[in-house]
UniProtKB/TrEMBL annotation:
This is acetylornithine transaminase. It is found in: Mitochondrion. It comes from Apatococcus fuscideae. GO terms for cellular component: chloroplast stroma; mitochondrion. It comes from the Eukaryota. Pfam families: Aminotran_3.
Amino acid sequence: MELTGCFSGSKAAQLPAAQHALTCPQKAARCSRRKQPLQTRAIAAPPRPAAPEHAQPSSSSAEDVIADEAKYVLQTYIRPKFVLERGEGVNLWDSEGKQYLDFAAGIAVNSLGHSHPGWLKAVEQQAGQLCHASNLFHTEPQVRLAKLLVENTSWADRCFYSNSGTESVEAVIKFSRKYARIQAGEDAYSPESNAATEIVCFSGAFHGRTMGALSLTAKEQYKTPFQPVMPGSVTARYLDLESARQCIKKGKTAAVIVEPVQGEGGIHMSSQAFLEGLRELCDEAGALLIFDEIQCGLGRTGKLWAHEYFGVQPDMMTLAKPLAGGLPIGAVLLKQKIADVMSPGDHGSTFAGNPLVCAAGEAVMGVLLAPGFLQKVHDNGVALRHGLREKLRSNPHVKEIRGLGLISGIQLDVPAGPVVAAALEAGLIVITAGKGDVVRMVPPLIIEPEHVQQCIDILAKVIPEALAAEMPPVS
Ligand code: PLP
């Protein structure tokens, strides 16, 4: 397994900052106040292909759209000052016709890129046939996708659908708590219970923004304004089995949730020893082990499931982001022993698993499972990190380039915002992670070696320029 490559750097420095840390609004707000002119020039992009016939030109100018967004949309994001209009393959175009190489994929969602022909055909066909019927009725795509997902794990027996990552996490919290009640021999519907309720999570984790998932998410600033979040969450240190041992307790811990590769936390890989240790601790305590593969699953690492690298099986696994190729979906895969404690009415959702999203999911799975596809994801990821290491070896601010398959991060000792902004200016979309000090690359899984090279060339040019000025180190 190819995991990391370290560079040592020297003195901390620098930060001019123009930035839209696309996933970190607070930092972006601070950085944008220090905005300075960029010195990067766009690397020559290939000519723009003609828009397909069905593409609608914008009815308003970009300026109008941005002004109306500021007026009518709740301001929980800070966005760059252009309007995306169209996507095709690995490229996006804004309303002024500027082309971008998309190495963010809608935050690890568009794994087939934009307007993938097979996906489009499946969605158009299903939308014309049956889009939504609710979970009160049988529909075929839902069952076909569940079968595909379950049969492509070595351990899961059932699938539960939701609409997003955070909802998948809410579902596993509920399943774990009910499982604990039944294991304790209780009547699950009695208001009195002494069963285990705690969920152990880890430093650096991101599991979502709803009250349960939020309580399992590490960043305090995401939680503080909304306290109290769900009680019963306990945080251990990632990759520290001793810390986990102190938190996982028989009769108290209902489940342990862990990302085999942390995405938002800064692209950190777990290890076989850590996951094996968690498996043992859970088994000893009678707790369930949950892998959150919402960002690292479904081919992102070059294997269908990230945990395949570590040879450890969970009891449940959460999925979402890329599963329906850009349509909202979430899923939980689970073992029969947990399915056995759930009864009709215990949990549900109006939209989840509708025929449209499930047909899209089947199209995505069809591509991921095609012979040789995941090997190519793996190889492109290796080439990306190798190329970046070669070009950035001597940069004192680049501390490490790490990743697995096509989830990669460049660890800086200064804020990554200026790099993200400069890359955008040069026509490359990347995003931040970690404490805002990691440049994250999660491109569509369909990229070709030429896209890898384009990304390397742009970052090799903009990173030294963007980090040339004096900047404070990341705290
Ligand atoms: N879990 C992980 C590992 C994630 O990366 C994310 C989103 O980034 C979530 C959960 C939450 O997913 P969503 O934003 O779809 O609610």
